[in-house]
Write a sequence for this structure.
């Protein structure tokens, strides 16, 4: 397979996943902001959400007030924002079009349909009360695409690249969603682990579609400690860092097998997964959640570059 | 005369050049006036370069380097025995269909006035080879009269003259072509890269004319390559396959020396 | 405009149904109007579902447009097709021999059968091809001949399209759609298959691999990229052939050989079905500003290490000014009379002919010598006074830039329109593959001018397509 095609598949999945996760991030920020008694409409939560999405600078350059309408518009529709849902869907589709021969018709139709629908949406029609439903529909489109990928794509190298890209992006985003919480807590660092912030943690779980699963696993009320454990270490949880790292490792292992030769990026992935399968919450909270997450995002990024070097992406 | 040649070229690539590709026309062939005794082109990638005859009858090399070091150095060395054949090159083994050299190109658009004067001379009964000489003399006169001599670098003047000469002959349906090579102007001066022209005569074959010097190539000339114009016969054509954003110009430096040994 | 004077593919002048259409005509008549309407709607759904199909790319927002498809097929009898096939084969054989000759000895010029100037000074003549020997001596491997019909036995070749003809994916998708829509008709009629095209294309490309290529040749399709209007066709053909779809920067030349950049490193490429124009193929030899091409590609080709399909420089043989010489070309190389007719063409550089042309512009068609796609063209009978005045001036200024032909009475074919079934003008583009043998796919692409009375079938000018059924004996 062409190195460029592998890159297109990898990034196609990354962008679909990113579109979904931007919607998830916005959802967290949005819900949290509803609980705020904001002065002049500016929301601390939305600000920290923008920071987690690495979008605060770009946003600040265009808007003064951090209110729901401007933030939602920036995160969903603004093509000046390279991570807006619209930019992500456009990039996902462009990547897919470049590898039209490597993906199935179902995958293309799903992605193309999503793009055509999305590009016809008038922002003013969805920015009010319809916002939660609209964010939901973005997640559903992503689910539909993933379904098409899992259900129709041949299990060849292309599949492994597409999947690896998706999991790398998801891991990055889960870390970011957790980090939103860190930003929220920043002024009151002593409260970390306490009960005061349970409501906010709940929203984070919701953003990961995991609030019900949590109950089944922990048989307990929401506790910060457990929730961080859930999203970082639990292998059963398909959006946890550990799950993503294990899945990336599996995909790179699959590539080694298909190509009949070991790769150094597979070793990198094994190391990253090991840290997550042997880590403990004690250590995370003693080192600081934010620092832990930053270190993870960094190694995740390096893994992405290693894959791209290893397989001649360009 | 035995001429020994040593020609060095250097190209500076931008630092992050991923691939460099060169089309090299620097291999002379034997003609009536020259016999190649020794010849070598030394440059990175030459060992594995592909070679073939190009459309104009030259031996061409396609040379590639991936991740070239900051610069490309080419060293051409060789020994050629020359004799004065009054400019007659004759027929060459690899010559393509001669009619090809009637084709006008962007660099060889005939000057209408010159073409008309040539036609008038033709009507007046001037023979084909005399006509070529007549044209060479007119170009030289015009150049003397214009007094541009000191302003333009000598290579540019030579190239322009060769183009005008070639274009005018093509304008009256005589095949003519652009030639590159070396010329040794004086014993104590280094030779330089030069450009002149050749025109076709059915009985003599190709005849060389150097309109910028107003003479037919002598034993001081070593003929390198030929083409429709400067573009198609240039000694080194290259593409640095630059990363997209980068469009730094390539700087070219030439150092050349030649000695004469009897 | 009276529609009577045109030959109709289905109906004789007296209104009776022509033989090859008998079963189809019965079927059409038995369909209630709503049924055809439903079929047309279903067809559109199928095209959308089959993928992006005939999408028009170009803009980023890219609302994908379908090229209109008509559900009533065009039918050609086995006998008619045999003759067409022979004529096409004769033509492509002669034109390939012509190309070989032009890039070698130029015997045809020496024999005085075609003017030297017309060739040597022609923009479409590629000097870099001189003396090059392509595998099997073939220059144009993939050809789409444009043919029009004016009577039961009158077929004219309009253009030979020897460069990079497009439209074959439409032919394949049209058939695919018809098999879904009217399977019962395929039971009743023996329609020659077109589905073999991708397989034949692959065989053709394999058969022209360089001599040095041992084993199964590695074939790629080279596309200008996703913003090209024919990108879908490029990816479709690559997919159908199991070839890799490459863009220029996916390929590179090393040591005189062509490689593609794969996840496992460089992989040698043997045959390139390129859908990039000559000028953009290789910045080392052609346009230096080309971002689409591969530096060194032409030299690698010249050295015999890769095959380019079609060869650069084939445009000289389908140049509109050279077109008028095709009958002489056929006679010169094959010693045969042409089977298919050329459209009579006026030469505006000839004073008498130009005078005739300027006096009769309202009845003539004027084409730019280097134009294509129906642009830069004047269709006399449909033109305004102002347009004719413009062209009069243009022709006077540059007579060599135009060829002029009589307006052909293009045949009509029943077509489903908003107003019910009505005759619309059609042409035909059969697709030809030239390799170890000449393979012509039965039928081809029928283009139909959907506007009432219009003679311009180009999709860029409001044309649509029809499936084309060649009946088997």
């Amino acid at each position: 397979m062409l190195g460029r095609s592998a890159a297109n598949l990898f990034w196609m999945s990354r962008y679909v996943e990113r579109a979904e996760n931007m919607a998830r991030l916005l959802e967290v920020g949005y819900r949290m902001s509803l609980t705020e008694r904001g002065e002049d409409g500016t929301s601390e939560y939305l600000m920290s959400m923008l920071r987690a999405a690495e979008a605060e600078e770009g946003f600040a350059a265009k808007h003064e007030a951090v209110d729901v309408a401007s933030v939602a518009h920036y995160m969903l529709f603004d093509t000046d924002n390279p991570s807006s849902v619209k930019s992500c869907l456009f990039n996902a589709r462009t990547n897919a079009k470049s590898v039209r021969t490597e993906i199935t018709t179902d995958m293309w139709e799903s992605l193309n349909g999503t793009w055509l629908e999305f590009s016809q949406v008038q922002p003013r029609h969805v920015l009010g009360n319809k916002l939660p439903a609209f964010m939901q529909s973005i997640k559903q489109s992503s689910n539909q695409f993933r379904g098409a990928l899992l259900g129709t794509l041949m299990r060849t190298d292309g599949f492994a690249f597409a999947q690896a890209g998706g999991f790398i992006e998801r891991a990055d985003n889960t870390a970011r969603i957790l980090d939103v919480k860190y930003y929220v807590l920043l002024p009151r660092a002593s409260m970390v682990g306490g009960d005061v912030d349970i409501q906010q943690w709940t929203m984070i779980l919701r953003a990961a579609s995991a609030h019900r699963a949590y109950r089944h696993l922990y048989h307990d009320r929401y506790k910060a400690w457990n929730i961080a454990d859930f999203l970082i270490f639990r292998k059963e949880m398909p959006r946890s860092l550990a799950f993503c790292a294990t899945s990336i490792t599996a995909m790179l292992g699959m590539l080694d097998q298909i190509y009949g030769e070991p790769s150094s990026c597979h070793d990198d992935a094994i190391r990253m997964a090991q840290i997550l399968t042997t880590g403990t919450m004690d250590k995370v909270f003693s080192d600081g959640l934010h620092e832990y997450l930053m270190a993870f995002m960094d190694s995740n990024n390096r893994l992405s570059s290693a894959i791209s070097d290893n397989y001649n992406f360009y | 005369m035995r001429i020994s040649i040593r020609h060095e070229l250097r190209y500076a690539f931008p630092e992050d050049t991923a691939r460099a590709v060169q089309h090299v026309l620097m291999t002379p062939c034997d003609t009536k006036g020259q016999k190649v005794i020794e010849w070598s082109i030394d440059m990175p990638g030459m060992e594995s370069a592909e070679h073939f005859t190009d459309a104009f009858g030259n031996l061409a090399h396609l040379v590639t380097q991936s991740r070239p070091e900051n610069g490309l150095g080419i060293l051409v060395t060789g020994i050629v025995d020359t004799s004065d054949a009054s400019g007659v090159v004759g027929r060459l083994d690899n010559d393509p269909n001669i009619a090809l050299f009637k084709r006008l190109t962007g660099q060889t658009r005939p000057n209408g006035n010159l073409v008309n004067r040539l036609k008038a001379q033709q009507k007046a009964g001037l023979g084909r080879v005399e006509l070529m000489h007549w044209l060479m003399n007119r170009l030289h006169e015009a150049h003397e009269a214009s007094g541009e001599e000191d302003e333009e670098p000598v290579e540019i003047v030579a190239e322009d003259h060769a183009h005008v000469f070639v274009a005018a002959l093509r304008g009256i349906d005589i095949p003519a072509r652009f030639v590159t090579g070396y010329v040794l102007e004086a014993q104590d001066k280094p030779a330089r890269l030069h450009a002149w022209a050749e025109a076709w005569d059915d009985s003599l074959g190709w005849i060389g004319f150097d309109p910028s010097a107003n003479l037919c190539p002598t034993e001081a000339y070593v003929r390198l390559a030929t083409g429709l114009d400067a573009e198609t016969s240039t000694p080194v054509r290259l593409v640095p396959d630059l990363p997209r954003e980068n469009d730094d110009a390539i700087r070219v430096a030439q150092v050349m020396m030649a000695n004469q040994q009897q | 405009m009276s529609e009577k004077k045109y030959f109709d593919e289905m109906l004789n002048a007296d209104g009776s149904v022509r033989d090859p259409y008998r079963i189809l005509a019965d079927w059409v008549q038995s369909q209630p109007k709503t049924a055809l309407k439903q079929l047309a709607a279903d067809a559109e759904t199928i095209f959308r579902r089959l993928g992006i199909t005939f999408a028009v790319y170009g803009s980023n927002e890219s609302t994908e447009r379908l090229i209109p498809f008509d559900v009533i097929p065009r039918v050609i009898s086995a006998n008619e097709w045999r003759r067409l096939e022979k004529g096409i084969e004769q033509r492509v054989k002669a034109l390939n021999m012509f190309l070989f000759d032009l890039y070698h000895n130029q015997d045809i010029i020496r024999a005085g059968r075609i003017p030297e100037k017309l060739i040597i000074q022609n923009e479409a003549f590629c000097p870099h091809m001189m003396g090059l020997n392509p595998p099997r001596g073939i220059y144009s491997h993939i050809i789409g001949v444009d043919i029009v019909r004016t009577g039961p036995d009158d077929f004219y070749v309009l253009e030979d399209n020897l460069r990079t003809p497009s439209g074959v994916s439409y032919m394949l998708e049209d058939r695919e759609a018809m098999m879904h829509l009217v399977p019962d008709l395929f039971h009743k009629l023996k329609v020659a298959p077109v589905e073999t095209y991708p397989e034949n294309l692959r065989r053709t490309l394999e058969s022209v691999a360089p001599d040095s290529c041992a084993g199964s040749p590695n074939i790629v399709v080279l596309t200008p990229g996703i913003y090209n209007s024919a990108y879908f066709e490029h990816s479709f053909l690559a997919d159908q052939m199991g070839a890799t779809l490459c863009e220029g920067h996916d390929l590179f030349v090393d040591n005189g050989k062509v490689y593609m950049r794969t996840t496992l490193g460089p992989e040698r490429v043997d045959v390139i079905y390129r859908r990039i124009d000559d000028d953009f193929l290789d910045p080392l030899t052609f346009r230096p500003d080309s971002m689409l091409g591969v530096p060194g590609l032409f030299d690698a080709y010249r050295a015999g290490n890769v095959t380019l399909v079609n060869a650069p420089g084939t445009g000289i043989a389908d140049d509109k000014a050279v077109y008028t010489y095709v009958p002489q070309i056929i006679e010169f190389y094959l010693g045969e009379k042409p089977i298919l007719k050329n459209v009579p063409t006026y030469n505006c550089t000839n004073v008498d002919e130009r005078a005739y042309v300027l006096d009769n512009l309202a009845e003539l068609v004027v084409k730019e010598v280097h134009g294509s796609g129906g642009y830069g063209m004047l269709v006399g009978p449909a033109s305004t006074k102002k347009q004719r005045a413009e062209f009069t001036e243009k022709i006077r200024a540059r007579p060599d830039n135009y060829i002029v032909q009589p307006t052909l009475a293009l045949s009509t074919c029943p077509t489903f329109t908003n107003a019910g079934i009505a005759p619309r003008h059609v042409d035909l583009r059969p697709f030809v593959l030239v390799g170890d043998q000449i393979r012509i796919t039965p039928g081809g692409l029928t283009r139909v001018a959907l506007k009432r009375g219009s003679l311009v079938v180009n999709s860029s000018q409001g044309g649509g397509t029809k499936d084309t059924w060649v009946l088997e004996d």
Q: What stands out?
A: Chain A touches chain C at residues 1-4, 6, 90, 94, 97-98, 100-101, 105, 108-109, 112, 116, 119, 157, 161, 259, 311-312, 314 (CB under 8 Å). Residues 235 and 243 of chain A are 5 Å apart (CA to CA). Chain A has two domains: 1-152, 155-314. Residues 1-152 of chain A form one domain.
